[in-house]
Amino acid sequence: MGIFKIILLQPIFNVLVFLYNTVSFHDLGVAIIALTLLLKIIFYPLNRRAIVSQKALQKIQPKIEELKEKYKDDREKLGSEMMALYKREKINPFSSCLPLLIQLPILIAVYQVFIQGLNGMNLDLLYPGIANPGSLNQTAFGFFDLSVRSIPLAVLAGLAQYWQTKMLMNKREKKGSMASMMNKQMLYMMPVITIVIGSSFPAGLTLYWFATTFFSALQQLWMFRGQPKSE
Q: Which domain holds residue 39?
């Protein structure tokens, strides 16, 4: 068995089956949502740091645009002034990317669990203390087949992505600036990409995608509570 399976895939699969046996009462949809929530809780510190950093970068974007305009013919000076700005604002421009990179192997493992594990062929990966359910019923909530593609669920995932991205946008951003145009492109392109990719996956994986995006948006909503709407 490969190291990836031992360290990531097998533990995640066992947690999913445990939740399927206990918390969800053999409802795979509920088990997937519970697994998503559990992973969000585990990675809350990393996700919080990434959100705070991303929001801080959005907030100083007008200052960044001013520097780019002022030193557009001197890239070396621009670089030094940008680093000075980050230092003054106490912002690490790479801190929002690091948590995502750390969680990428987890996402790949979850993908493998849903693509390979949900067909019942990998139940031999269960730990001795986890009851073997024999098979995993892929009908969620009594009517929803998680083994086939679901365009409506992909659309829901896209809407959740739009909500999450919209919350991070800086409304004080200079209209017509490069940053403003890029952010608008991201606002609409990310949901479209989510819908296209989500509609090609089995609904079980799309449900996980929707749930993790929705919980991330709720986390942002909670973190930004009380802040002025203009920020």
A: 3-223
Q: Look up the pTM and report it.
A: 0.80
pLDDT of residue 175: 58
State the amino acid at position 131 in one-letter form: A
Whether 230 is in a domain gets the answer no
Total structural domains within the chain: 1
- Chain position carrying tokens 């996402």: 107
In a domain, 31, yes or no: yes
Query: Is residue 21 domain-resident?
Result: yes
Domain assignment present for 172: yes
Which tens digits make up the pLDDT trace of 146-172? 888 999 999 999 999 999 888 877 555
DSSP string, 99-165: HHHHHHHHHHHHHHHHHHGGGSTTGGG--TTS---SS---EETTTEETTS--HHHHHHHHHHHHHHH
